[in-house]
């Protein structure tokens, strides 16, 4: 079968598409990708050894204020529909699967015009604009959470990429931290996400420098230059998350759907800091659903203050101390049995 996957915008859209695509390639299908022209999108694909077809558009014409930008993006959207038509006509896929982001709209229009089976996967609890349009156009929509505001879809979960199995010791070796982290230390990782979240990194980094956390070692991911200061390692962004997850006893992270799906599957407790500028407040809703699914975690927002952040870290750290067994600490291969991939594929087969 030939499958065309469309995903752009952020890692939250792209990494589930790559996880699903890798699964289908292993099953013998021919898989093609389409993304937008943002440098970050192309970097995410490149670092996962995927070469997508790039459409000449960098974002939605909606939600921006200047007339020049609206005109430019609208024109590029029209151009992308025409280019997408040529691409689909060339590949002749058996189906298109859209993983969201602005880039999905040209593919949605073309698939409906050419009468090719098309499916939508919505990763967030609050459906995006293209997912809502797809739902109105009677396109089958798979949802990443058990509830999804704005559409009626079929719950499948979020496909999660594979990670290498690493012992804690092997993961620390890869991170050059073997001589920095004590055996009894709990490792807490601050994740910035594909959008960087520099404000989160700055805020939490300051907090960590102000407070003495007994038996904890912190890794702050997303800094320009690697360095270690006392019990905090500042590391540059990286796409191979196997060693990071391999040592993480807890994460502090944004509420991007893909990140929450990964830490959920790996069973890593999380202090979640929803990005306040996320459209329709979808990150806060993602965080609530993460907790509703009985995942270990806490939600913190800057309005709660630094004291409350320290309290939530301490609460989760104490939970880890009670439940964790260091002798059994090995990163599991999260997609050995990825139920989301299987559920999404069953949904697709039921409509083809």
UniProtKB/TrEMBL annotation:
Pfam families per the UniProt record, alphabetical: Glyco_tran_28_C, Glyco_transf_28
InterPro entries: Glyco_trans_28_C, GlycoTrans_28_N
GO MF assignments: transferase activity
Domain Glycosyl transferase family 28 C-terminal: 187-330
Keyword set, alphabetical order: Coiled coil, Glycosyltransferase, Transferase
Residue runs in coiled coils: 306-333
Keyword field contains Calcium: no
Ranges of residues in domain Glycosyltransferase family 28 N-terminal: 3-138
Top-level taxon of origin: Bacteria
PANTHER family, per the entry: GLYCOSYLTRANSFERASE, UDP-N-ACETYLGLUCOSAMINE--N-ACETYLMURAMYL-(PENTAPEPTIDE) PYROPHOSPHORYL-UNDECAPRENOL N-ACETYLGLUCOSAMINE TRANSFERASE 1
Protein name: UDP-N-acetylglucosamine--N-acetylmuramyl-(Pentapeptide) pyrophosphoryl-undecaprenol N-acetylglucosamine transferase
